[in-house]
Every structure is written in C-alpha cells, then in structure tokens.
Design goal:
disordered N terminus, 21% strand, 313 residues, globular, oxidoreductase activity, IPNS-like_FE2OG_OXY, alpha+beta, 13 strands, 28% helix, vitamin c, Jelly Rolls, IPNS-like_sf, seven-stranded antiparallel β-sheet
Length: 313
C-alpha cells in the first residue's frame, strides 16, 4: 500500500498542467488517459491557484466548523434536503450514518443559490467560496476538453452535454476524532454523481482511500495539490472508457480532519448519454440516456448501492 501511495504521489508531477489550455503534447494526454482509465483520479499541482489561496479555503472551513453549535445551526439543512449544515439525510431505519458534519451548498447557477445557508461568519467565507468555485469551473472546462482529446474525440463533446446552466455544488466536510475508527467510517464507500469532482484535502491528516482490485489504497497528502476524480456522469458520457472510482474516508481516533469537495455536473435538465465517438461496432453503447442523474443518486447512496447500475444497458 505504501508503494502504491508513492506511485500516485510521483505521478502528480508528470500529470500537472498549467491550468490554461489543454496539453497539446500527445505524451501528456496519454498520461491523463492512463491515470483516469486505471484509477479514475489524479492529483494536480499546476492548477493556477496559489498555495496561500488554497490555505485560505481551508481556513474558512475550519473556522466555520469551530464555531459553537448554536452558530452553525443557523444554517441547518431542512429535513427533506441535503443543502445546508448537518449530516446524512435519514432515509431508512437500517441506514449507516457517516461520521462527519457537512455544509452542503449550491454554487451555480447563481440564481439557484440558497444564500440563507451561506455562512456570514467567517466574514470572508462567501467571497472566498465564490472566487474558488469560479476558478474550478474554468479548470473543469479545461480538463473535460483534455479528457476528450485523450480519447481522440471532439474536444467539446463532453461540454456539449453540459447545457447552459451546469450545476456546481460544494461540500465542506468536518471529521471529528472517532473513538472506534476500526468500525466507523467518515464517509461510506461510494462513487460520485458528478461529472468531475475537485477535492482539497486536509493539509496534515490523511483519510481518503480509493478501491482498486478489491483493495483500499490511501491517497497521500500533497498540501497544495487538488485531487481530481471523474464521477458517474463522465462514466456515462465516455461509454465506460473512464470509470467513476469507488472511494471512502476512514476516521482517526486522535485528530480531526477537514476537506472541501466541489462537484461539477451538467445541467440537470439536459440529457446525458455516451458521446457518438465513444460508441462503435466493437464497443457498443453501454449506458442509457439519463436526465437529472444527481436527484436519483442520493436515494441509492444512502442505501449503499451504486446508482450507475440503474443506467447500464
């Protein structure tokens, strides 16, 4: 496991891009294709954001979760919604609840933001989050073009399915010390409903693990890298060339941990399906056409099931 963690860490330098335009170098595109086809994820360092800015994201997150419960509960989610502050939605008596507190927010489209859930403290929380997610949306567009080119597809083919109002959401995660890390997970095994997920890990405490070949591998900490993974919607659009990786978060008995995940997805009103260039006589269509995939996702997630199975042909 340690050797694999080192392999992932070393691949970061090779996979790094300048965050401005898709790499034209065929070798770099092949590395991107290899990382996503073998792991479904990679870490990137040359993403165009300074180390001090990423530290600011971490800081406003930590400050919010450090507030007294009375302050945090001003932003508590409603019973039938995931948006706001809280934990898992309880959908069944047999549900396993994650060992985490969350703040879940809709970022884009901007007219769908529920500002009542956006903390007013720390004072710069809202401004910082807005700036961060604007940068990530640019990175998402750049990445999806590069992913398409790595498969020798039309550069815009994935973005063409995004529509006019793509969905961007953010989830701030706080994992308090857990007395039974051998039995309780911070987040249960799952794959993401998004097209692309960007994760800013805790700078000091590990916890994220990916499943490969029926074995869990830890993700090493690279303080100013972003971890990028494809989600179920890229799996559908790529016709299974890239699989949405299953991952989990383990708990720690001594130290708390925070992270910030941003999920980029197509407009929920848009149909998504395998792009034409990914379907051929030798590789038939593997997924159905689907709309508003995210809304279907959470029912499956809380039951420990993979929603992607429901859209396979």
């Amino acid at each position: 496991m340690a050797a694999m963690a080192e392999l992932i860490s070393n691949s970061v330098q090779e996979m790094a891009t300048n965050g401005q335009e898709p790499p034209v170098n065929a070798q770099e595109l092949e590395k991107l294709k290899l990382a996503l086809s073998s792991w479904g994820c990679f870490q990137v360092i040359n993403h165009g954001m300074t180390s001090s800015f990423l530290d600011k994201i971490r800081e406003v997150s930590k400050q919010f979760f450090a507030f007294p419960m009375e302050e945090k509960q001003k932003y508590s989610r409603e019973a039938d919604s995931i948006e706001g502050y809280g934990n898992d939605m309880i959908l069944s008596d047999h549900q396993t609840v994650d060992w985490t507190d969350r703040l879940y927010l809709t970022i884009s489209p901007e007219d769908q933001r529920k500002i009542k859930f956006w903390p007013e403290n720390p004072k710069d929380f809202r401004e910082t989050l807005h700036e961060y997610t604007v940068k990530l949306q640019e990175t998402n567009d750049f990445l999806l073009r590069a992913v398409a080119r790595s498969l020798n597809l039309e550069e815009s083919c994935f973005l063409d399915q995004y529509g006019e109002q793509p969905l961007v959401t953010a989830r701030f995660n706080f994992y308090p010390p857990c007395p039974r890390p051998d039995r309780i997970l911070g987040v249960k095994p799952h794959a993401d409903a998004s097209a692309v997920t960007f994760l800013l890990q805790d700078k000091e405490v590990e916890g994220l693990q990916f499943l490969k070949d029926n074995e869990w591998f830890r993700v090493p900490i690279i303080p100013h890298a972003l971890l990028v993974n494809v989600g179920d919607q890229v799996e559908v659009m790529s016709n299974g060339f890239f699989k949405s990786p299953v991952h989990r978060v383990v708990t720690n008995s001594e130290r708390e941990r925070t992270s910030v995940a941003v999920f980029c997805s197509p407009d929920p009103d848009n149909d998504i399906e395998p792009v034409d260039g990914a379907v051929s006589e030798t590789r038939p269509r593997l997924y159905k056409k689907v709309q508003d995939y995210g809304s279907k996702y959470f029912q499956y997630y809380q039951k420990g099931k993979r929603p992607i199975e429901a859209v396979k042909i």
